[in-house]
Amino acid sequence: MKSNNKQLSKEYFFPLFCIFIGIVFFLSDTLGILNFVRSGISFVMQPVAYEGNRIGGEGKEYLETFVRLNEFRKEYNELSIDIYQKEVENSFFILLKEENESLKRQISLGGSNSAYVMAKVLSGGDYEIIRINKGESSGIAVGDVVVWGNMFVGIVTRVDREGSLVRLPSSNSSNLEVVIVKGGIEEVRILDNFNALSKGVVKGSLDGIRIENMSMEADLKNGDVVIVNDTKVGEYLVLGYLVGLSENPAATSRSGYVSTIVDYDKLITVFVRTDH
Amino acid sequence: MFLNILAIIVGMFLFVFIENFFVGMFSFQLTIILLFFLFKKVDWKVLLVIFIILFSISDVVGNLPMGSNLLMGGVTLGLLVLGSFFFSTDSDITGFSIRVFILSIYYILLKICPEFFVDGRFGILSFKDVAFSFLKGVLSTFLLVLLEYIFASFRKRGDSSKIRLK
């Protein structure tokens, strides 16, 4: 019993021993007496402690992901909305940019003495016609030529008050007289600068825009420029490039196809010449 | 003898690694839990030597003056001993609550004392720090109870091999 009490009382003094030795160590370290001990422990244990701490830190970051899942979800939703808004703004700016470029092209390449109405293409995907958002109220009439710079797009076939239908050269009902020239597209605007190789006729079909009745003697090659030269159009406008040229020496005339420069599916802004 | 020394050295390395792993992951100190667990189970002289070494290592790797962790551990243990005079600190709800409270105080000391030891002024304590210290106190107590339960079950299994005379 007595020894148990003795043992118990020593156990009760254990915290006091800890405090006393702690104070001794603290004062010794402050005076620099224990520097050698610190160096030794640091040399041996610091790498072990650092690795343990680093791995624990990585584990904590991993666990934090689950704890902050709701926060990440909210942030993700906000960012998604932000992205959608920016995409909408971006689309608007893309449209503005396209309109600006079309206008610049029209000013530089279009006829300077003609009047034009700027219109937006409402629907495409049809190889025969496109709809535009301007009509009678803007001064558009049936037969008006639709252009994009000095590129031929089509001819207005139906007009309503606020919309019109434009027949494309690839339409079955389209028939246009053309000339085939050598030279660049930019030079076509100035009449004297192109060298006409042959005349021809373009007709729309399911296969594309077919060109026929070209001269056998002419030095025609794939890649030559096809220009619309029709009384219905009233000016020289570029249609596209000659492709698929026939090579039959027995034929009386040559034929081929026209690959248009304008991609009708991607047209957004067009210009309707309204001076009748 | 040699194997014992080797086991102690390897054990120390392992303990330092695990302790710092818990510090990095949960801001948790295993040394104090071990101290509370081994108190009254191991001879106080052996305990003193073990914890002088462990606390000194904690001080050095934590860049604190040596003796800091030993002081804080000693104060905390002293509070437990003082509490044992007035309340029962064995395995019941009162004992559990006392340990939660005392371990929470330890984590609060851990928050404010290091700055005092280094710069001579106590660190700032916010309500959030107190709340987290309480939470860590609760977790530490659970871990301590778990250790005691495992120890108790080993002891019982050990006893089963003894011959009982009726």
Global outline of chain B:
globular
The CATH architecture term of the domain at 114-276 in chain A is: Beta Barrel
Gyration radius of chain B, in Å: 17 Å
Percentage beta strand of chain B? under 5%
Question: Number of helical segments of chain B?
Answer: 6
Radius of gyration of chain A equals 41 Å
Largest interface, C-beta within 8 A: A-B, 39 and 38 residues
Mean pLDDT of chain A: 83
* Structural class category of chain A: alpha+beta
Please trace the helix and strand order of chain B, writing H or E for each element: HHHHHH
CATH hierarchy, class of the domain at 114-276 in chain A = Mainly Beta
Distance between the termini of chain B: 39 Å
Low-pLDDT residue intervals, each spanning 5 or more residues of chain B: none
The major pleated sheet of chain B works out as: none
Assigned CATH superfamily of the domain at 114-276 in chain A: Rod shape-determining protein MreC, domain 1
Biggest β-sheet of chain A: count, sense, barrel?
6 strands, antiparallel, barrel
Q: What string gives the helices and strands of chain A in order?
A: HHHEEEEEEEEEEEE
Kindly state the number of beta strands of chain B: 0
Tally of helical segments of chain A: 3
* Structural class determined from secondary elements of chain B: mainly alpha
Shape of chain A: elongated
